Amino acid sequence: MNIKIRPNRISGEIESISSKSMLHRAIILSSIAINKKTKLKVSDIISNDIQATVNCMKELGAKVELDQGCINIISLGNNLKREVNINCGESGTTLRLILPIANQFSDKVIIDCDKELRKRPIEDLIITLEESGLYFDDYDFPITIRNKIVTNHFKIKGDVSSQYISGLLFLCALLNEKSFIELTTRLESSAYVDMTVKILKEFGILVNKIENNNFEIYGGRKNISIPKRYQIEGDWSNSAFFIVGGCLGNSISVSGLELNSSQGDESIVRILKEIGGNVSCFDDSIISKESEFKSFELDFSEIPDLFPILAVVASVSRGTSILKGAKRLKYKESDRIKSTFHMLKSLGADVDIIDDGLVIRGKKMLDGGMVNSCNDHRIVMASTIASIRSKNEVLILNAESVDKSYPNFFEDFKKVGGFIDVII
């Protein structure tokens, strides 16, 4: 599906969708407890990535049903399956969170995923799990896993993917003895690990962060306590696009956001304010109004998902901006440094690519043009918001990739005045 967008200065109100990162974690924890029921309250249609996690947990034996704003879950029993086949689709979070725990529920696990996800890093996590007792037939997909974990001490790099650490935290939550995770490098995207720790504690598992970002975990499957109803807070990563949209347009109010969230992308409010954004907070709502931005220099090692939308901000800011610390973005749905560069270049921005980011010289308006989404949901959303400050129409190829995280994105964009034509 290709989308053509006519420039318009959007204005209006939307409700934030449920946090994808939190929902992955809550579904898994609700599923791996012993014979318990829970109801996860969500605010929207679930994305393709969340559906992948639902499918995997059902394959392991949990019962998961979607019902009008809720996900109802009956957790796994004690019976061990002889063999399961799991497909994680395009969801890197699903793969990295479930890979360490699947063999706790089956003697043999075969894990596969879609072609693009196969290209993304996983080897360091596999090596750690091999050293801990699991046996992998191969490192290439589909991956077959046998044996059980025989240690309570895990070593892994902290600067490849925070999801590795989150997956190991889930594994430790299932072990009946105190366990440890030792990071051999600096932890990046630490907010995602903090979110995992927070949710584990809310589900009854004690996690202590000790020196050098190492962790000790007091696990045991019997200790996982499930709230009967658990509210998933709004998604800051996806809401950031509309918050910026209000600054580039006339005014947008985004409701349903937790102002003291564990989500690292909550920092979008602070960042925008620091560079001239007219952004204010009331109760659970963020209101952003027409703004003129100044240039900035920013390290994205802790906030990688904000890179594409803040690159759009830089492209229409006064002066030269430097976006750096984004090396790990080379291994997202696309090489997101390159795909963001090509998006901006296609729209007429003055931008150069550097090893770990971009240098962007801002201008008052972009030209518009045709954008190849590279099947990356965040490139689709960023280029849509860029249309607000474009002279001419923006055509986005393969715009359906937005379904990965935000299936209702274009419907919400139309609610606030976006002009969209679907070109098949």
UniProtKB/TrEMBL annotation:
Q: What is its EC number?
A: 2.5.1.19
User: One Pfam annotation, family name?
Assistant: EPSP_synthase
A Gene Ontology BP annotation from the UniProt entry = aromatic amino acid family biosynthetic process
Location comes to: Cytoplasm
Q: Name one GO cellular component term.
A: cytoplasm
Q: Which UniProt keywords apply?
A: Amino-acid biosynthesis, Aromatic amino acid biosynthesis, Cytoplasm, Transferase
Give the binding site residues for phosphoenolpyruvate.
20, 92, 120, 163, 336, 378, 404
Molecular function per GO = 3-phosphoshikimate 1-carboxyvinyltransferase activity
Q: Which reaction does it catalyse?
A: 3-phosphoshikimate + phosphoenolpyruvate = 5-O-(1-carboxyvinyl)-3-phosphoshikimate + phosphate
Oligomeric state and partners? Monomer.
Q: Which family does it belong to?
A: Belongs to the EPSP synthase family.
Q: What is this protein called?
A: 3-phosphoshikimate 1-carboxyvinyltransferase
Gene for this chain: aroA
